[in-house]
Amino acid sequence: MLDERVSAVLARLEEEDRIEREAGVPASQRSRQVAPSTGRLLFALAATQAGVEVLEIGASRGYSSIWLAAGARVLGGRLLSLEHDPVKCAAWRANVGAAGLAEWAELVEGDAFATLREIDDVFDVVFLDAEKDDYEQLFALARPLLEPGGLVVADNVTSHAETLAAYSAARQADPTLSSVTVPLDRGLELTTALA
Ligand SMILES: C[S@@+](CC[C@H](N)C(=O)[O-])C[C@H]1O[C@@H](n2cnc3c(N)ncnc32)[C@H](O)[C@@H]1O
Question: pTM value?
Fold first, then answer.
C-alpha cells in the first residue's frame, strides 16, 4: 500500500489526465504522463537499492516523478528531474510537494541538452521520457552519468516504433550494454550499463 498523500496526488493526476484527454486538450498542453502500471514499475526499480540516485529527463507535471521519488524514498535515495516548460515546472513543484516528496526530489528547470552537461553526479537509474526525436542525443549525454550496473528506462519504444525502433536496436547492439524491450504499456527499453 502506497503512502496516502502519494496515492491521493497520483489519483488526482490520473483523473486530470482523463478529463483533459476527453476534452481534446492538445498533447503539448497535457501532462503526457506514463500509464499507472509503468509508474508502478518505475517505483519498483527505484525502491530496490539503498541510497539509489535517480535521474528523470522529461518530468512534466510530476506524475512519473512521484512514482520514482516514492520508490527512492524507501531506502533513502533521491530523484533529480529535468523539465524545460515553466508551466509544467510550477505544477511539478506543487504536485511533488502535495505528495510529501519535496525532501526526496529536486527539479532542475531548463533544457536538458544544457542542464545534463552541468550535472556533476552519477546515477543508478535514468528515466528517459522527453521528445522521441531527441532520445539518441539525450542518451549520449546521460551515458557518462551512469554507474556501472546502472539502468536507463526509455518510454514509448513500441508506441513510437517508427522513431524509436532504431534507439532500441542501437542499445541492443552495443557490447557495453545489455538491453531489452519490455512490452508494458507504450513499450519500455531497459538498458543496463555493463561498465
Ligand atoms: C512525455 S512528457 C513527460 C511525462 C512525465 N515523464 C510523466 O510521466 O509524468 C515529456 C516532457 O519532456 C519535456 N521536455 C521535452 N524536451 C525537453 C528538453 N529538451 N529538456 C527538458 N524537458 C524537455 C516536455 O516539456 C514534457 O513535459
Answer: 0.98
